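User: Predict the structure for this protein chain, please.
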Amino acid sequence: MERRAALRPVYAAIIARLGPPTLLGGTDHGPSVRWVRPTRTLLLSGDHGAAVLSVHDSARFAEREYAEFVEGGLPYAWALDRGGPGGGRDRWLNDSSVARTCTWQDAEERPALLLASWAEHLPVQAPGDWAGMRLRARWNPPVDLVVTYDPGTPGREPCAVVPGPPPTPETAERMRGRGWQGTDPHNRWYIRLPETDPRAPAEVARVVTAELRAGPFDYPNEVFASDISAGDDGTLVVPGLGFEVTLRREHF
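Assistant: Here is the predicted structure, written as structure tokens:
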């Protein structure tokens, strides 16, 4: 939270000088905001020690980023297009689907890093907005987990919910054993933790993965993410998620 507070005035000063960016975003370790023009791309990046503004040739920058995706790297964990000035969006959306994972360890670690990045950078870049997604699979009954980060719910910003069986003593013991805290009025099991707890993103991701691994899945690529959104405004992609991703709205 201290880093978030330190970045806020810096980011506001950059926006005041340059105007709105082409793409919002973040990595596992810092911001990833870009202003894209035909010949030049300005990138706001950073790590635990500093924020950095750098200028790149747009064509070379795009090629280098694409190559990193193909090789399995993640130039950014998430990026959000809200129609800011600049181009290159088609290539960006296609590139975002290249990075995949096939291990359960990745399927737990990457959502934790994504939630942590949302918590640090979304309130600075998109004040007041939430971000969320559904993790789904076609089984009987179908899997339908919702994972969100919402700074408007103090004390329970990272959250996950899943429809559950009737809360009998046996099912309650089983669900609580996986880490779920209780049920809401819609009979959904939930885990809600404060963002001030540095372990919160990892714990939410652990509970979600434990729930998925309790199902009939051999590999995490049998699960996919959909309904990915940030405040229902713009296009949000999450190549750093660790599951297959579809930008379509899925209903079943």
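Helices lie at 2-18, 58-70, 89-95, 104-125, 169-178, 200-213.
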